[in-house]
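FIELD: query
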Amino acid sequence: MIPLKDQILIGRNPVVEAFDSGVELEKVYLNKELRGEVEVTIRKLCKEHEIPLSKVPASKINDMVGNRDHQGVVAFISAVEYQDLENILPFIYEKGETPLILMLDGVSDVRNLGAIARSAYVMGVHAIVFSAKDSARITEYAIKSSAGAILKIPLCRVKNIQDSIRYMQSFGVNVIATHLGATETISVVNMSIPIAIIMGSEDKGLGPHIMRLVDTQVIIPQATDFDSLNVSIATGIILYEVVRQRALQ
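FIELD: result
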């Protein structure tokens, strides 16, 4: 793990050098008013290396680095080393284990991310796959919220979550999503087979483009008609059901 105080890179040259040196970057921020060679170079590098890029007001960058000369460019070094799903899934099968993958599409709160990672590690999830866009960064708060578990579980950051769904399905993995309109509860769906559970963002959940791809839609039984559960709580409940069913095999 990289010391958190050393996670930030300030200015054009340090950021470009990080790309050239193969440093794993978490996210890059650009002043939205920036134009010219610097803006073009950074944008091209982010696209080439599939690193999330956000164009923000100069005031936001100033809040990050204070009075230091940032030239409109700031990047965060990743606190973790991301892994390729294409390497993880075959390895799970080679070990003779039944895949249990957790997918997150747009979970943006670092505390939710940390709590989810903690539950995932305890419940034996093989890897967490999440979209590069609109996802929470792996920050000190995420690490603390996970009690360090987020550093112990393989993390896969992907550009297109839909492609990852299709890839897992090609390996015989059943992709399961929660939906308030589903008719099957988590206790009646077979979770002893290879599965990937996908959870959506805190405010919007999963979009229709994702729901059309999944194999199974489930609902968590509730005693009241209250809107829904927090995403981290819902994830923990579903993962417990997976462990419960697999323990009966």
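FIELD: remark
The chain has two domains: 4-77, 85-247.
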